[in-house]
């Protein structure tokens, strides 16, 4: 599975989002954190900004909905131009139905798990998804320290993906940086959201390239990748 680097615009300059998108044109996706101040204690942006950003960049948008009632709102983000939409299982009323609706609209369906949410109860749902997001911090704010205790959960998720022979992307989000990305890759992640590690760098595009090189090197040596 190819390594993918998704810079998070949560760490970008919101007054210059079009320019900030261009600054990471070598990235695979732009990660867009949507927060409603209810599911998480922070408020960021919504559908109008996603619509504008989709027009301003050729990089596909990976929208992470940290909101209540994603069953109601997620389809609007597909309509706004998101190519991948992630909802939190803790907030979804009917996750299978929602994943199928997102896919039917032509986008990739992704489900996120907060740090305290185990993956095992959702094993049967995995075939309905294109990506699973393991949060490696508590959602709500950028710049948090990586939670090492999530590494075993990443490994268990990778084992479940292998067990069922799924082509499911495994994304990590939170504290991903030069000092943590290799551990995430070794554990089984293949899609990496990086905010401050990219936009806090002097050259964001170079930061993306460097993170990709680190992740690819770690993946090449990871036991799960060799087995795959």
Automatic annotation (TrEMBL):
MF annotations from Gene Ontology: D-ribulose-phosphate 3-epimerase activity; metal ion binding
UniProt binding sites for a divalent metal cation: 31, 33, 64, 173
Active-site residues, record numbering mapped to chain: 33 (proton acceptor), 173 (proton donor)
Keywords, in A-Z order: Carbohydrate metabolism, Cobalt, Isomerase, Manganese, Metal-binding, Zinc
SUPFAM superfamilies: Ribulose-phoshate binding barrel
Signal peptide: none
Family annotation (Pfam families): Ribul_P_3_epim (PF00834)
Top-level enzyme category: isomerase
Pathway: Carbohydrate degradation
Descriptive protein name: Ribulose-phosphate 3-epimerase
Cofactor(s) listed: Co(2+); Zn(2+); Mn(2+); Fe(2+)
Entry note: cofactor: Binds 1 divalent metal cation per subunit.
Transmembrane segments: none
Catalysed transformations (reactions): D-ribulose 5-phosphate = D-xylulose 5-phosphate
InterPro entries the UniProt entry points to: Aldolase_TIM, Ribul_P_3_epim, Ribul_P_3_epim-like, RibuloseP-bd_barrel
GO biological process, one term: pentose catabolic process
Residues given in the record as substrate binding sites: 8, 64, 140-143, 173-175, 195-196
The UniProt record lists the keyword Metal-binding: yes
Entry EC no(s): 5.1.3.1
Species for this entry: Streptomyces fuscichromogenes
């Amino acid at each position: 599975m190819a390594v993918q680097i998704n810079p998070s615009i949560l760490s970008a300059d919101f007054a210059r989002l079009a320019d900030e998108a261009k600054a990471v044109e070598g990235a695979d996706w732009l990660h867009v954190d949507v927060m409603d101040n209810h599911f998480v204690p922070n408020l960021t942006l919504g559908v109008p900004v996603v619509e504008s950003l989709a027009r301003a960049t050729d990089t596909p948008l990976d929208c992470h909905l940290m909101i209540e009632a994603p069953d109601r709102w997620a389809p609007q983000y597909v309509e706004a131009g998101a190519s991948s939409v992630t909802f939190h299982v803790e907030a979804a009323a009917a996750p299978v139905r929602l994943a199928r609706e997102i896919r039917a609209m032509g986008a990739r369906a992704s489900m996120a798990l907060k740090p305290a949410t185990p993956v095992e109860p959702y094993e049967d749902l995995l075939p309905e998804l294109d990506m699973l997001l393991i949060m490696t911090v508590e959602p709500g704010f950028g710049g948090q320290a990586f939670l090492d205790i999530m590494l075993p959960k990443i490994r268990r998720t990778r084992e479940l993906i292998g067990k069922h022979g799924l082509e499911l992307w495994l994304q990590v989000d939170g504290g991903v940086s030069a000092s943590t990305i290799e551990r995430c890759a070794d554990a089984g992640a293949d899609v990496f959201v990086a905010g401050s590690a990219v936009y806090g760098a002097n050259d964001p595009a170079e930061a993306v390239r460097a993170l990709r090189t680190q992740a690819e090197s770690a993946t090449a040596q990871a036991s799960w990748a060799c087995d795959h």
